[in-house]
Amino acid sequence: MEYKITCLDATKTLAPYAEDLIQRSQRILADMCEALPLTDIDLTLCTAGKDLNLPHGIGGFAAAANRVEIIFDTARQDLQDCIERDLAPVLVHELHHAARMSEGAAVKIGWPIP
Q: How far is CA 112 from the centre of its chain?
């Protein structure tokens, strides 16, 4: 599995966390490629819009078998704590969705495709 991590940060509010986020994400992706049958993944790290409510400071979604987006509430004072506590579970959760979206992966794992 190949992956590319992109940090979208036009507001420059994610910049203080970007290097740490990329390193943590690389470790998680390396571990998960052994556990899940993933296709190549484009991972986007980006800031949340003002109208997006993220109770844990971090959210995400799998847009396709090869596309995962993780969103951060950079207005939170405790964002670093949120990253340390919740980045791994949120990213793993979304990678699981991505694996399920891949028909071949769903068959290998034995899960039905929704």
A: 23
The first and second tokens of residue 57, run together, are 């400071």
Long-range contacts of 9-17 (CB under 8 A, 24+ apart): 9/46, 9/47, 11/47, 11/74, 13/47, 13/74, 13/75, 14/45, 14/46, 14/47, 14/72, 14/74, 17/72, 17/74, 17/79, 17/80, 17/83
Kindly report, residue by residue over 24-51, the tens digit of the pLDDT: 999 999 988 778 778 899 999 999 988 8
The string of pLDDT tens digits covering residues 54-74 is: 888 999 999 988 999 999 999
The encoded tokens of residue 4 equal 């590319």
Q: Cite the beta strand spans of the chain per DSSP E.
A: 3-8, 41-47, 58-64, 67-72
What does pTM read for this prediction? 0.85
| Burial of 4 from C-beta contacts in 10 A (0-12 / 13-18 / 19+) | exposed
